[in-house]
Amino acid sequence: MAGTLYANAEVEPFVAVNPHDANNLVGVWQQDRWSNGGAKGLLTGASFDGGRTWTQHMAAFSRCTGGNAGNGGDWERASDPWVTISPDGTAHQIAIAFNGRTFAAGSSSTVVVSRSDDGGRTWSNPVALILDASNFLNDKESITADPTNTRNVYAIWDRLAAQGNGPTWFSRTTDGGLTWEPARAIYNPGLTSQTINNQVVVLPDGTLVAFFTLLQGGATGSAIATLAVIRSTDKGMTWSAPIPVSPVQALGARDPENGTAIRDGANLGAIAAGAQGELVVVWQDSRFSGGQRDGIALSRSTDGGLTWSAPARVNRDPGVWAFVPSVAIRGDGTIGVTYYDLRSNTVDPTSLLTDYWLARSTDGVTWRESRVTGSFDLANAPNAGGLFLGDYQSLISIGNAFVPFYAQTNTGDQNNRTDVFATLASSAGMAAAEAAAAAERAPGAGDPGAAMRAETAAPLPLTPEFARRLTESIVRTMERRVPGWTPGGTVRRPEAQEQ
After folding, report:
1. pLDDT in tens, 127-155
2. Which of 455, 476, 487, 469 is nearest to 249 (CA)?
3. What pTM was computed for the model?
4. Backbone dihedral angles phi then psi of residue 112, each to the nearest 5 degrees
């Protein structure tokens, strides 16, 4: 079990608001991150005053958080925390957990769930939705409570085979999490392809929309990534064929001065559903800079995911790297997108000054942004295949306020590199933040509070050089989970942990 342990490092947070009580928020994150995969445990934060104060709790997903052979949590490491809350207030948490090196003899992995009926204070013993030995890796799971039926909750993930191929797997509960149906594949992309980053949202009419990135390998060792959705009108019993959203042309961010990789959300994405049935997807894409650096792309659907708008750039400054977007839609239809960028960075190669931003729009075309936090030194983040705050962050809304839930570094503190924060971004507070950001903006960055009209862009032509760079980005995304991964389903080397 080699690797560097970053004690006291909290990364990859996710949060949910209780539909039954908007003052109750439940957040989850990785605690004590390893450099070569996963964390010692996953922790839970519960708030009962709208995110102003929090208490810490835990589900027994790993040995570090109280798991053992008797309660279903006898796992060395856990990762990919996700949480959702049903209309009756029951919270459901999901994770992957694993022992041993990916695909190595004696290794194993699982997807586990736990429920809380007291707002996140206490959690049931973990229940395994799937349990695999060394031939498979279960990865990038998520969980979604059905807002139209309090008894239904949906879990989804990708299951990679050692020889290639990674279908989307699915399980559901119809009794509020007391029991779960046997897991099954709901979409198989073929022997040289896989999905990753599977997520489910539910439309107001009860239709399920499953969102993922489809990775396809070519005969010459190339790879392409495409965002897609599948739909179910019968609560997950049957599913449509894939519907493409957009090609992904993400390169993955780096420190512009010294070239250090940032482990970001390249080739992944996030989806949100609104109260009127609208869908919004965000991801990293380099098309807006001519293939020079990633910006934040957004696409919308107003017909339940059947068709999608041309991707539009929502990050204000296209001259710097922007990465790890999250998205939410307020009850009034306002779209919020959070992301990190490097507009405050300097030429000092020993630091990497980073800001976290919230952009919002009432129509998906005109955007205003405010700084959530900054500037912090990303160079102090744990290194897990790149400087790492998480493959994702989280964003929800409560009334007229967006609530970003995110990780940032503690500059210069090697014993406590990162912490998780919640920020209540009300309309009034955002206006003040915009004024402050405008007053201290970097020269040439533009006024953060000013309205910006999003530009749309078609995918860039796949020249041999650009195709090579996109393939390298996809390989990096996967090698951070499966070292030795190559496009096309070739054998992978069991040399390090997943996730």
Report:
1. 999 999 999 999 999 999 999 999 999 99
2. 469
3. 0.94
4. -125, 150
